[in-house]
Amino acid sequence: MKEDFLLNMGSDGVTDRLKRLSDLFVYQTRDFYRNNGLDIEPNWHMIFRLLQEREKMTVTEIAEAIHHSHPAVIKLINKMKAKGYIDSVQDTEDLRKYYLSLSAKAIQELPKLERYWAALSEALMDLMGNHLRLLEELREVEERFEEMGFNQRAEKILNTNRLPDSPSE
């Protein structure tokens, strides 16, 4: 195996390693979908699942459920609508609010999509060596983020003078 500088960095390389893994998953999942004739994107899976389970939701409800920003969810939803996978109905009492649901096309495609998602899920478990440790550890890190963010932790450390002074010029 070639040298990997990020591995040598230890914990200082973790954010870049997570980004690298995320990119690998997204790009290779996109290729998997395209190679199998599917016109969906990797990050739509969670929206499909959520609307499949809850039937109809607002953008705000979706954003809260998946812990993504409102603008990020709008971007996903708009792409899914453009491909015909999402229906949108305006609330009669609050005209600013729209309820989103899976379209007839999405519901028709779900059995086929389920087959591909099952294959991806099994491939992921294979990559993880069929262990759930990584998922548990990610959950713990996410919970610690909820308690106090990364930047807040760094500021706290910086402000308590726990770091050596920078060398004078």
Show unreliable segments. none
Helix content: 55-70%
Question: How many helical elements?
Answer: 8
Order of helices and strands: HHHHHEEHHH
- Separation of the first and last Cα atoms: 40 Å
**Main beta-sheet strand count, sense and barrel state:** 2 strands, antiparallel
Broad shape = globular
In which order are the strands of the major sheet placed? 1-2
Description:
It is built from eight helices and two strands. The chain has about 170 residues and is mostly helical. The protein has a two-stranded antiparallel sheet. The longest helix is centred in the last third of the chain and has 24 residues. The two termini are about 40 Å apart. The model has no long low-confidence stretch (mean pLDDT about 90).
Main attributes of the structure:
mainly alpha; 6% strand; 2 strands; two-stranded antiparallel ribbon; 63% helix; 169 residues; 8 helices
Question: Which helices and strands occur, and which strands form pairs?
Answer:
Layout: H1 5-8, H2 14-35, H3 45-54, H4 59-66, H5 70-82, E1 86-90, E2 98-102, H6 104-127, H7 133-147, H8 150-159
Antiparallel strand pairs: 1-2
Helix pairs in contact: 4-5
